[in-house]
Amino acid sequence: MMRALQKERPKALPEVAERREVRIAVTRFLTAGFIALVLVATPVAFWIRAEAERHALTNARDSTQRLADNVVGPLITTQLLAREPSALEFMDQQLAPWLTDGGLTRIKVWDENGRVVYSDVESLVGQDFEQEEWARLLLQGGPASVSLESQTDQENEFEADSGELVEVYVRSSSEGGAPMIFETYSSGEAVRREQHSVLMGMIAPMLLSLAVLQLVQLVPAIRLARRIQAHQATRNALLRCAIEASDQERCQIACELHDEVIQDLSGLAYALESEERRGPLSQRPVFIKARSMLQENIRTLRAMTSELYPPDLEKLGLKASIMRMETSFVERRIGFSVDIPENLVLDRERAVLVFRVVREALVNATKHSCAQSVGIRIQQTNGYTQITVFDDGLGFNTNTSRQKDHFGLRILGDTIEQAGGNLDIRSSPGAGTTVTATFGRTVGRTSSPATTRESSPILRSIR
Question: How far, in Å, CA of 149 to CA of 160, rounded?
């Protein structure tokens, strides 16, 4: 008599595991948010820095243009152009405040021929330099030029060692209306200070607003993580219930076959044997044939109960339970190979699923493929378990094969998908069949070896 089935409600997820999963999810959210903040803030900071520099240079250009129009232009007289000492000295006196306290380090005035008509450095006055295209355009009314860089040109021999300077070229006119170029140099520190001031004034509120946004999103993120965790726990509990119900149903069918149908048929076989001995000789062949057919059916039913009634995985372990199926294949002269690591780590529910995958695939191999050899390979990599069952049988066309011939695998595939895995069947006529099942990491459960002897409602239900 088979032992009665025991029922137990699936256990809920441990509270500690749930908190750990939520904490991990929140940590990932914060990390992703920080990375996003850096990715957003970095280009924005560079953009603000560039805009601040442009703004500072624009101010330098505008102030230089005002100086040229209001101060320098009216002082470019015929006497200055003739380089009379009194005119040059008067220009020096008028521009001295800008050179001492106004932040300018160098002043030059060029005529349209590329000659320096005035400079605070006396040795430059009267020198001729090649006029570039931008200078000709500026004299014709083109835009002013402003830049922040180190000076290395020939005409900048006195500024070469001054580092970064703000160089400004604007158009002006002499007292007589002749076009002139007014050039100034000033320290780049003033631009950098203004640039830094603008950057700090804008970047701080931007970072603060992004941080506040991140914190505001943190609360719903935690709630969402807990909700997802709860749904995952519910799904796992339903999965365990589904597996338990399926195995309990198998065991119940096996019990009913063993305790009722097989027992009744066995009694009928004994009755036929008794009638065979007492009946007339002419009827013995009929009794013999009927008894043989009945005994064959009894053996078939007992084999079915063995398939429906799996071994005790807790006591035997997964590998030993699979190896117990080798006997039936050896009796049929079918090669049977197994490649299962000794340190295989699975939780209890997935150990049952692995056994069911192997069992269902082997049943299909023996019933439909006429295989000469079958093989089982189980691998674990980075928390993922892959089960492969292959044979060298007839194979089939996966597109046209009758679904009813593989109904068990279809049901098993649905169960595996609910467990977060997938089932792949590859076959072609004459090339055998390969069934591959892959399980992901276990959610909310502590993995333990499949050979553990701790109590489990699912495993107790299939004893």
Answer: 11
| Residues listed for the chain | 463
Q: Residues of 226-236 as b/e, b for ≥16 C-beta within 10 angstroms?
A: beebeebbeeb
3-class DSSP assignment, residue 119:
strand
pLDDT in tens, 406-422: 556 666 677 777 667 88
Model confidence pTM above 0.85: no
| Side-chain-facing half-sphere of 447: CA atoms under 13 Å | 14
Count CA atoms closer than 13 A to 274's CA, side-chain side: 6
Collapsed DSSP state (helix, strand, coil) of residue 440: coil
Pairing assessment for the beta strands 335-339 and 179-187 based on DSSP bridges? unpaired
Instruction: Enumerate the β-bridge partners of residue 462.
Output: none
The confidence band for 269, taking pLDDT boundaries of 50, 70 and 90, is: confident
Check: CB of residue 244 under 8 Å from CB of residue 10.
yes
> Domains along the chain?
1-241 (3.30.450.20), 311-463 (3.30.565.10)
Structure letter (DSSP) for residue 312: -
Tokens 């996966």, residue located: 398
Centroid of chain to Cα 420: 18
Q: Which distant-in-sequence residues (6+ apart) come within 8 Å of 200 by Cβ?
A: none
For residues 187 and 167, the answer to whether their CB atoms sit within 8 Å is: no
Q: What b/e readout covers 248-273, taking b as 16+ CB neighbours within 10 angstroms? A: bebbeebbebbeeebeeeeeebeebe
Check if the beta carbon of residue 210 is closer than 8 Å to that of residue 41.
Answer: yes
* HSE value, Cβ hemisphere, 13 Å, CA-based, for 283: 10
Q: At what angle do helices 15-67 and 188-256 cross, to 10 degrees?
A: 160
186 φψ region: left (φ > 0), alpha (ψ -120 to 50), beta (else): beta
Please report the pLDDT score of residue 32 as a whole number. 84
Q: Is the pLDDT of residue 152 over 80?
A: no
State the pLDDT at residue 311: 60
How far apart, in Å, are the Cα atoms of 360 and each of 354, 365, 406, 435? 10, 9, 9, 10
Which residues, in sequence order, are bridge partners of residue 425? 435
User: pLDDT digit string (tens) for 89-144?
Assistant: 888 888 888 888 767 888 888 888 888 888 888 888 888 887 788 888 888 888 88
CA distance 332 to 371: 10
Spatial separation of the C-alpha atoms in residues 332 and 73, rounded to whole Å: 113
- Of 244, 179, 182, the closest CA to residue 10 belongs to 244
Cα–Cα dist 85/83, whole Å: 6
Q: How many CB atoms lie within 10 A of CB 142?
A: 13
